[in-house]
Amino acid sequence: MSYDRSVSAPEHELGPETVWHLQMPQIRFGRDAVEELGFQLADLGVDSDDDPHGLLVTDEGLVEVGHVDRVTDHIADAGYDVTVWDGAEREPSIENVDSCLEFVRENEGEDGYDFYVGFGGGSCIDVAKATRAIVANGGQVLDYVAEPTGEGEALTESGPPLVLMPTTAGTGAEISPVAIFSVEEKEIKEGISSNHIRADAAVLDPTFTTTLPPDITGKTAMDALGHAIEGYTTHPFDGLLRASDPQARPVYAGRTELTEMFSEKAIELLSGNVRTAVHNGDDLEARSAMLKGALFGAIAGLTAGASLAHAMAYPVGNRYHTYHGETIAVLTPASTLGYNAASDPERFVRVAEMLGADTGGLSTRDAADRARQEYVRLQQDLNVIPSGLTELADITEGDVDWLARQTVETQQRLLRCNPRPVTEDDAKAIFRDALHNWE
Ligand SMILES: [Fe+2]
């Protein structure tokens, strides 16, 4: 079977892609980087002489532990007025964004605030991203969600400055051009994907991550490691077909030498520090390495493109309401590191070695399989990762057909770049393999 790797070009123009492109927000990283938040806003053109009024989007938990006060104090010290909206929910729904939009319009009218700060895990960040963009473009969330769920309108405006501050080391939402929401009545997730939704700056301060409990630390780390490994092993950019114009080039555009560099460093940082971060959460050095590793994994994976584990994770998350990170964790051994290893064994030998495996004396194909074994051992060492889909959400053999069909029917955006073709039968076998990663 062959893949249709076409993006948008008419047939007579088809040829391999020759150009790659990297677009990122400004990135400010390090211990106490929060102290530079005022400077960051000023640098984006927020002028304290204009009496600017901003909105900080977050959740109640972060207010309770005092992190939000620390952020708003720095904003106030810089001479800016800021209001806190702490209603972001885990795996946010479209209604959740609507309530933030309503809050903005009630308080500041149609023009909204002068700047936005998203502070928290991927959920808070996605609500902040969507709110800023939709206020600037008008209308409601569903206007910009793809058809048939929404109207599929394109965003044309970015809006006033948006700064994102992640408090977990995982999703990469602070740099990505996507915001993802659940549509409750349909048991699906929908995203808004546009460069207008990307933030202007990301401020990453590891001191906010030391309060993350071990299980969230471990699960978000598996998402980050998934971005790094999937990005490292996805199709190369010049193996995809050329876009007919730069505007039509897909967001996930294949791996390049640049994304590979970020993947390699991310795999090393994440796999080398996650045990310490989970078992000794106060270790700021390990926390800092994790936050940096998650950032690098996102730069790689969310540019090159996540692939098979992410494609399979969406139907699971939609139906069983599992956390994204733990879903990626249980699917990765059978998919990215199992099924996909046949696509380029030498590349997977490198992954095995980066994860710490000793591959001396093994054939290339056997050494490639060591990536999966080493990754499973890492998960077992953490004590917080389910042993497979069955432990995750009581998923059994009888659920496999539905999950495989959903993956192939709804996730072609991700499967398009997978380094090995995936039929529905292949997906069934991989889901079956992922029921139990260990006993
Ligand atoms: Fe992810």
TrEMBL record:
One MF annotation (Gene Ontology) recorded for this entry: hydroxyacid-oxoacid transhydrogenase activity
Record-linked SUPFAM superfamilies: Dehydroquinate synthase-like
Domain of life where this protein originates: Archaea
Domain Alcohol dehydrogenase iron-type/glycerol dehydrogenase GldA residue range list: 26-206
Keyword match ATP-binding: no
Enzyme class: oxidoreductase
Keyword terms, alphabetized: Oxidoreductase, Transit peptide
This enzyme's EC code(s): 1.1.99.24
Catalytic activity: 4-hydroxybutanoate + 2-oxoglutarate = (R)-2-hydroxyglutarate + succinate semialdehyde; (S)-3-hydroxybutanoate + 2-oxoglutarate = (R)-2-hydroxyglutarate + acetoacetate
Signal sequence interval, chain numbering: none
Ranges for domain Fe-containing alcohol dehydrogenase-like C-terminal: 256-434
A Pfam match: ADH_Fe_C
Family named by the database record: Belongs to the iron-containing alcohol dehydrogenase family. Hydroxyacid-oxoacid transhydrogenase subfamily.
Protein name, as recorded: hydroxyacid-oxoacid transhydrogenase
Origin species: Natronolimnohabitans innermongolicus JCM 12255
Lineage: Archaea, Methanobacteriati, Methanobacteriota, Stenosarchaea group, Halobacteria
